[in-house]
Every structure is written in structure tokens, then in C-alpha cells.
Amino acid sequence: MSIYSHRERVMRVFNHQVPDRLPMDLMGNACMLLDQTYLNLRDYLGLSPIPPVRTGTTANYYDERILEYLDIDFRRIFLKKKDGKKITQEADGSFTDVWGIRYRKIDNLVNAILHPLSNVETIKDIENYQWPRAEDIFTTEGLVEDIERLFFKTDYALVARNPLPAGFFNNPSDSLILFA
């Protein structure tokens, strides 16, 4: 059986053809490692610490070194957050995101505990809500360069990573395949 590049392997599956092995994914919403699992694996592999790619969840790390080690076929493209658009820590240990949703970590999971639209009664209440604008939260600066580097200098299948961990309306999908 032939050995395919990461991108070829993914494309074979998308085209309902048999690959040399099933494509593997790791560190997308559905397959992200919880922080403690990630830290244990990182330490087991003897890797040095890296900063998290996000905050406010229990799965905050995206580590290229582990993806390489495990021969993972997919790589994520991330929008970068603008400065000042971070999570606000509350006095009671909970935190509030830019949407105004308050969360609390309970055991290994982060749970929404207060939603800014939980008590709306009228259309006017919804219209009065200060909806965050994507362009105020994220920047596309450097995005084209990141995509071009990954597409032309690697053979990975690229995936656009959704910028919201749970999504305001509980996004049904964590990502959109950009380039296979």
C-alpha cells in the first residue's frame, strides 16, 4: 500500500477512497486535550512549557511538537485576538468572556453560569444588547502569511479554527476545512 502525504490522505478519505491509514486529528474542539492531560503528555515527552493559545476553557494548549510527534494530519489556522479583548476574572473565581457570558470551572470542565440574554422578554431587549463585533475581537493580521506558509511549506490538511470555544449559539461544528 502507498504512503500518502497528510493532505493526500485526507483528500482520499473525502473522495471516498482508501487511504494508507485513517487520518488523525488532535487539538480541534472535539479532540482537544484537556489541560492536565496535555501537561502530562508534554512532560512525559520531555517538552518545555509553551504559553496557551487561549484562556477560559480547560483545553487551552495547541502544541505543534506533539502534533509532529504523533504524526497528526491536520493543522489549525487561528484568528488572533486583539489586545484588550481578553477574559475578565471575577472576584468569585468565575470569569466573563467578551460576549458577557460568565463561566466557572467545575472539576475538569468550564460551565456557563450566567448569560446576558437569559432574562430577555422582548425583541427590544435583544436589540439593546451590545453585540460584540468580530472585527473588535479578532485580527486577520498575519493570517494570509500563516496559511501560505502551512499550505506551501507543509503537506498538512489545513482547518480554519472557529474563534469561539463553545460558540455563542453553541456552534454545531468546531471548524471548517479550508484546504485539504
Give the topology:
Layout lengths: L5 H9 L20 H10 L19 H6 L4 E4 L2 E2 L6 E2 L5 E2 L5 E5 L2 E6 L8 H6 L5 H4 E2 L3 H11 L3 E5 L13 E5 L1
Features:
9 strands, three-stranded mixed β-sheet, 180 residues, disordered C terminus, alpha+beta, 6 helices, 26% helix, globular, single chain
The chain-level structural class is alpha+beta
Distance between the termini: 21 Å
Largest sheet: 4 strands, antiparallel
Order of helices and strands: HHHEEEEEEHHEHEE
Rg over alpha carbons: 19 Å
How many H/I helices?
A: 6
Shape: globular
Total beta strand runs: 9
Report on the architecture of this protein:
The protein has helices at residues 6-14, 35-44, 64-69, 123-128, 134-137, 143-153, and strands at residues 74-77, 80-81, 88-89, 95-96, 102-106, 109-114, 138-139, 157-161, 175-179. With 180 residues, it is α+β, with helices and mostly antiparallel strands. The strands form 3 sheets. It has a 4-stranded antiparallel beta sheet with strand order 3-4-5-6, with no helix packed on it. It has a 3-stranded mixed beta sheet with strand order 1-8-9. A hairpin with a 2-residue loop joins strand 5 and strand 6. The radius of gyration is 19 Å and the shape is globular.
